[in-house]
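Pair request: fold both.
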Amino acid sequence: MATHARARLLDTAEELFYAEGIRAVGVERILAESGVGRASFYRHFTGKDELVVAVLTRRDRAWRDWLAAGVAERGGRPLDVFDALAERFARADFRGCAFINTMVETADPDSPAHRVAAAHKRQVVAYVAGLLAAQGRPAEEAAALARRLVLLMDGAIVTALREGTPDAAAEARAVAAALLAAGAGTGGAALEESCAAPADRG
């Protein structure tokens, strides 16, 4: 039963934090909607801050597993991350990136929640670098390109939230394709040529 109570707290908190924001949701709301009593809550967590960290840690694993599975289903190529994101953007419950949202809400970079969110982004960069390395990119080039692709991923996430459509994923994919064609350098000419012509969405 104790395990079930912890799971209900995590499930409820994750849903509410993502939908409404961490600051907007208090412990009382989580207790009311989860059906878990206050005493049980404090057996599992010292307070809201620890709950936030637990939610983010669990979501980090689940989100990266989801991304890896989505990319693998599509062929395991670096650009497949954008096609997976497009699927996520089309969901009715899409509210952006929980980790970007957390870093905006918890501006202190030394706070536990901010550190978990930042670590998540580093893990995503490492994952994308691994996809690039698997295609034969040298490690240094893969690392540089991965940072740029994740920048595009984050930009697409914010744009999709602002515009309410998944179109930003395809646009970011086109820019990413130009970056990959140009390599880790500036790639100005290749990027300009790609952006001037219709993107290959295949």
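--- second member of the pair ---
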Amino acid sequence: MKAIAAAERSGAADTLLGMALTFIAGAINAGGFLAVGQYTSHMSGILSSMADNLALGGVGLVLLGLAGFLPFVLGAACSAILINWGRRHHLGSRYALPLMLEAALLAAFGILGWLAYPLPGFGAGAVPLLCFIMGLQNATITKISGARMRTTHVTGIVTDIGIELGKMVYWNRSRHIAEKVAADREKMMLLILLLASFFAGGVTGAVGFGRVGFLFCLPFACLLLLLCVPPLAEDVFARPRNIRSH
């Protein structure tokens, strides 16, 4: 469990973490739609909607789009700040820091939603929070995997699957060509797993939010905590020993 969110990475750890985060992203995206009436990871749609509304003179709707777009960007920026701060301080939990923040925000969203919904204005505050969480998570897995994986950007995942499929069916006329076109089957399998995890998370989130409500966020927050606590605890308990050794 410790290796999944630790600074020392392996291909298996990246795959497991990517699947876990993609599952959570799918669940929060679908469940959030049922809760607040808007998908919170779909930045292409939000930006296109802002452009359409601006052209039609709907300034209020443009501002509503910004309330989702800007928090997503800020969430990604926050992830970069936390990870680079952890790297600067040589923390093994550098990747666990933004995931711990995500767990806290998810728990807060679930509890506040359970207490406050359907008070007027709840959705206006919930959408920026969920978009911030999506940006935070997407940037974290991007940093961890060296931009090989995304958890909320399904368009990119599907595009990469299509590219690998095109390589797979490409006919190399000669076996002696220096630059033979060949699919990266390992990458394609990873992408398929991520896509399946997002879809499974979406189904789980839609069913869970529909039956349980906002408190269905709490199991996802607990899952993130399970991933984060081991490397964080190692840093906390290792630091006093390092100080004494010097």
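Observation on the second member. The chain has one domain: 2-154+200-245.
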